[in-house]
Each structure stands twice: as C-alpha cells, then as structure tokens.
Amino acid sequence: MQNKLYTFSSVAKINRFLHITGQRANGYHELQSVFQFLNYGDTLHFRPNQSGEIALTTPIDGVDHEQNLIVKAARALKQHTVSSVGVDISIDKRLPMGGGLGGGSSNAATTLLALNKLWQLNLSQRALIDIGVTLGADVPVFIYGETVFAQGIGELLTPYKTDTPWFLVTIPDVSISTATVFQHPELPRNHQPLNINDFDIEQCVNDCEPLVRKLYPEVEKLLAWLLEYAPSRLTGTGACIFTRFDSQAEALRLQDKLPPGVKSFVAQGLDRSPILDELEQH
Questions:
Q1: Domains observed in the chain
Q2: In the chain, what is the greatest distance between 2 CA atoms, to the nearest angstrom?
Q3: Beta carbons of 269 and 164 less than 8 angstroms apart
Q4: What sign for the dihedral angle of Cα 272, 239, 231, 207?
Q5: N or C: which end of the chain has fewer CB within 10 A?
Q6: pLDDT per residue over 12-71, tens digit each?
Q7: Of the listed 13, 72, 78, 117, which one is catalytic?
C-alpha cells in the first residue's frame, strides 16, 4: 500500500434535535440527540509512507498544524499502536468551522478509520472509538457510522431508524464556539429525558437554539427568514441551520430564493456513512 493514494469521505452530520437533560459535577452536559449524516462533506486523501512521518500537506487557514484534528488523530493512532509507518494527508475542505456540522470530528474519525485499514492495524471499532473520544465528543458518532440516538455526554450510542429527507443547509457568516454556548449561564439544562421508543422527532427541539439566536444576530436573522418557508432548526451549537424537505426539488427551490450572499448546500440525510462501504472496498 506504500506510495499509493487512497481517498475517503468525511461527511457532515446534523443533530435532528438536541435536548440537554442535566449537567454533571465535572461540568460535562448530559444530552439526548439523534445524529444523522448527510451526503455532503470533505474528502481526505492518504498516501502511506515509510518515513514514519505524519504530514498534512494542505494546511487549513486559522488552524495550527499540531492542533488540527487530522494530525492529532493520526498521531494518537500511531502512539497507541507503536506503528512505524507514516502518511501524507491532504484534504478537500468544504465543511465550515464552527458550523455545527461536525467537520473536525468527521475528519478525525475518517483519519482513524482509514489509517487503521491502510496501516493494517486491525483495531476493533470499540478501540477506535476509545481513541476518538479523547479527540472530541462527536468523533465516536462518525466512527460508528450509522444514524444513532446519543445519550450521556454523547458517548452512549444506540442505532436509530429515522427518515432520510432532503435538507437545505444554510451557513450564517459566523463561527460559533461550542464551549461558549455550553458554558453560558442562560443555557437550559433541565429537559425531561425522552423515551427512545416513544417520541416524535419533529416535535423535539434544539435547546441551544434560543440562546444562539440571542447571542448571534446573523443566526437570528437567517433562521427567522427560513421559518417563513419551512421547518428549520439549528444543528448542534450552530451556526448552520437545516431546513427539512420531502424532495430535492423543494430544497433547491428555496435555495434559489435565499437572500443574496447566503452560503448553502442541498443534501440528503443518510442511514449510513459512506466511509463504511469505502473501507470494505479497500
């Protein structure tokens, strides 16, 4: 596998809802959410090498090389397995930072999954999840690779079947720090827990949304506009907003009406991340 280039998907996720049910003594928040993947995201390229070095050849503006989750994931895997193999990595970046689409976590998960295969390490999914959770709370979801109902601090994952509608995802011109939202004193933390077997996903909410709308006028303005046309909701702690449709054509029609300058994309919800099939093909 040396010197050959391998390409893998690193897709976006949305939180169909996000309920915060409590806060632990250590500051971590208890939550419930359904994570669903989209058929849209970044693309990562890997070329294993014998030098033992890990190099990201396409730096991301505003992100220090050593703090990039791609590099951190590769180093964590190498350290865990004491592998002598290296890799050159490049990325075609489409997902915004601070958008609530899980771009960094998805990149980290794709790196762990791809290198586990390319370096022939044969670690189990559970072992990769244990490494991934040290990099970020959302990384295990992307390693798991299927739509899940998440509980606890996001680490308790249960397969969950839901619909796969089309979404118009709009991207306000602002980057939102997850820590800023979760540390804010006005964030509600007492949502009554759901019964996983008996709830309507469309009746659920994002508990972060009212606070984000208050703190970020860019989000408030765009979300108010979208709600005039169709059900719309913040994903994660934001800033991106998803608007649900039954067909691609409906999503594209609203995309054509968006105010000038608003960035967006149309994508379909998935039951399963494409990287799982890509790994099997290799």
A1: 1-282 (3.30.230.10)
A2: 56
A3: yes
A4: positive
A5: C
A6: 999 999 999 999 998 889 999 999 999 999 999 999 999 999 999 998 888 888 899 999
A7: 13
